[in-house]
Amino acid sequence: MGTVTYPNADVQRDLAEHFVPVQFNVVDQPEAMERFNSAWTPSIIVQDADGREYRRCLGYLDPKRFLGEMALARLLWAVHRQRWPDAANRAAEAARIAGGDAYREPEALYFAAVADYKISKDAGKLLAGWNRLLDRFPDSEWAKRVEFIRQSK
């Protein structure tokens, strides 16, 4: 990641704007693996200042997938804080950044529907958003979490 992803201009801009990146050399600092409960490198862990974790991914990510992960981390920060207007905006941003990524875009769509519902208190918006998710990414893990809405009664 140090030769392709981190030097990428978009990645550099995103990290500078939204995060305080910290990198450990686990050869020189093997205790970091234990401290962050990580058994593999690279491990990307997004935490807030209080140590609450919002995203964890293991293994190499190219710049597009890395940016998608960071956008989802920002989204989940807003969801966990129940800042629903922020979550709606961040879900739209995450869906845009992760567009075409069948692993990350469905998660953004899932939480976009949740945020719309929480803002409006209209269950129809939740169902409409989850139906869009089911239509666009029927085989995704996130679609499987909402497929109950289409099961016959």
Folded structure, characterized:
It is a single chain. The longest helix has 18 residues. The protein is mainly alpha-helical. Helix 1 runs parallel beside helix 3 and helix 5 runs antiparallel to helix 6. It is 54% helix and 7% strand. It has a two-stranded antiparallel sheet. The model has no long low-confidence stretch (mean pLDDT 94).
List low-pLDDT spans: none
Trace the largest sheet across and list its strands. Answer: 1-2
The N- and C-terminal alpha carbons lie at a distance of 48 Å
User: H/E series, N to C?
Assistant: HHEEHHHHH
Count of DSSP H/I helices: 7
As a whole number of angstroms, the C-alpha radius of gyration is 17 Å
Shape: elongated
Look at the structure and give the mean pLDDT: 94
- How many DSSP-defined strands? 2
Alpha-beta content class = mainly alpha
Strand content: 5-15%
How would a crystallographer describe the biggest sheet? Answer: 2 strands, antiparallel
